[in-house]
Amino acid sequence: MSSQAEPKVLISQQEIAARIIQLSSEITSAYRDKNPLLIGILKGSFVFMADLVRVLDFPLEVDFIGLSSYGAGKESSGKVRVRRSPGSEVRGRHVLVVEDIVDSGLTLAFLKDYLLEKKPASLKLCALTDKPERHRVPVNIDYLGFTVPNKFLVGYGLDWNEKYRNLPDICVLDA
Ligand code: IMP
Ligand code: MG
């Protein structure tokens, strides 16, 4: 792709902020006394994680895992690799995975197995966006921000070839 249309806003930063406040009250009820370990999937979740943890007013810890399933395109290769493992001890912890977008679900299916092997006390998933039409394996999202259409999204951490992560809104590329 050589020329690229301007990304169009799908979900504004104000809508994202309002939804994160709602999610934070659900997450607070479930985790306020559990000192959870939030594990963000790099790189896409870094913006969501930063906004989410700042509205969670109780003790928690943050870590990240680097996974890759995508090459330099818009389709999942279906193969997931761990590029950076979390430094934190997962055993016995209440783990909440923080993800930017669920597409095929293959990344999460892999991560679930990977983390369950480490024997957490509990394992749940918080995803900012979900494209249910694209699922290729069953996915159970415990805390979901937005269901989104089957379009390629950028901004608010999401990239296309490493570009657009810094857009403040969630936008559609090639709208
Ligand atoms: P899955 O394994 O197919 O569910 O892919 C999940 C990962 O693919 C996400 O964490 C994103 O990094 C990437 N991804 C999926 N859909 C999009 C999109 O619309 N825009 C940007 N990245 C995406
Ligand atoms: Mg990702």
Question: What are the salient characteristics of this protein?
Answer:
binds magnesium ion; 3-stranded antiparallel β-sheet; 175 residues; 3 helices; globular; 22% helix; binds inosinic acid; 9 strands
Describe the overall structure.
- The structure is a single chain.
- The chain is α/β, with parallel strands linked by helices and 175 residues long.
- It has one domain: 3-Layer(aba) Sandwich (Rossmann fold), CATH 3.40.50.2020.
- The chain has helices spanning 13-31, 46-53, 106-116; strands spanning 8-11, 37-42, 61-70, 76-84, 94-102, 122-130, 143-147, 153-154, 170-172.
- The chain has a 6-stranded mixed beta sheet with strand order 4-3-2-5-6-7, sandwiched between helices. It has a 3-stranded antiparallel beta sheet with strand order 1-9-8.
- The mean pLDDT is 93.
- Magnesium ion binds next to loops.
Describe the largest sheet.
6 strands, mixed
Spatial gap, N to C terminus: 15 Å
| Mean pLDDT level | 93
As a whole number of angstroms, the C-alpha radius of gyration is: 16 Å
| Sheet/helix structural class | alpha/beta
Helix content: 10-25%
Low-confidence stretches: none
The figure for the number of domains is 1
Approximately how much beta-strand content do the residues carry? Answer: 25-35%
Q: Give the CATH class.
A: Alpha Beta
User: If classified by CATH, what would the architecture be?
Assistant: 3-Layer(aba) Sandwich
Q: Could you give the order of strands across the largest sheet?
A: 4-3-2-5-6-7
Which geometry do the CA atoms define?
globular
